[in-house]
Design brief:
- The protein contains seven helices and two strands; from the N terminus they run αααβααβαα.
- With 153 residues, the protein is mainly alpha-helical.
- Strands 1-2 form a two-stranded antiparallel sheet.
C-alpha cells in the first residue's frame, strides 16, 4: 500500500514548483544532469547568499546537497501548522563547506531557509506515483474485452 504524504497548505505552491524542477532534471539518459545543476546552484548561493530571494524552490535546490535532514524526527512535529525555524533547526545538519552560507541565510533569510529545508524534507518523503483509483462497480463490465467484440454494431 502506498503512503500518502500530505503537503501542508503553506508549502504547496513552492513544493510543486520544487517537485517539477527536480523531476524535469532527473533524466535517465543524462544521470548527472540534476547533480550538476544542483552544484551550479550551490556555487551561486555560496557567492551571494541572497541570489535566490523570492525563489524558494531554487533555494531549496541550492541547499539540497549541503544539508542533511533527520526527517524521521522532524516528521514527529506537527507540520500542518507552519513551525518556527527554532523548531526545525535541530533536525538539520549542514556540510562543513556550506556552514558560512547557511549561517548567512539564517541571519538575513531565516524564513526562506526554513521553508527551503521543509521543501527538501517533504520531497524526500514524497511519492509521486499516482494512487490507484477505486474502480466504480458500473465500469467493471467495460474493463475487459472479449474475443466476440463486434466492430459492426
Amino acid at each position: 500500500m502506498q503512503n500518502e504524504t500530505t503537503i501542508p497548505d503553506y508549502l504547496s505552491e513552492d513544493f510543486f514548483l520544487y517537485l517539477e524542477n527536480m523531476e524535469s532534471l532527473t533524466d535517465p539518459e543524462n544521470p548527472d544532469l540534476l547533480s550538476n545543476y544542483l552544484k551550479v546552484l550551490a556555487s551561486q548561493l555560496s557567492q551571494d547568499s541572497s541570489i535566490f530571494t523570492g525563489l524558494i524552490d531554487q533555494l531549496a535546490m541550492a541547499i539540497n546537497p549541503s544539508i542533511r535532514i533527520n526527517s524521521k524526527e522532524l516528521a514527529k512535529l506537527d507540520l500542518n501548522q507552519e513551525p518556527n525555524w527554532s523548531d526545525v533547526k535541530p533536525f538539520v545538519g549542514v556540510h562543513a563547506n556550506a556552514r558560512a552560507t547557511i549561517t548567512e541565510l539564517m541571519n538575513h533569510s531565516e524564513q526562506a531557509l526554513k521553508t527551503a529545508v521543509l521543501l527538501n524534507h517533504f520531497y524526500n518523503s514524497y511519492d509521486a506515483t499516482p494512487l490507484a483509483s477505486l474502480k466504480d462497480e458500473d465500469e467493471s463490465e467495460y474493463d475487459t474485452y472479449s474475443d466476440d467484440y463486434d466492430e459492426q454494431y
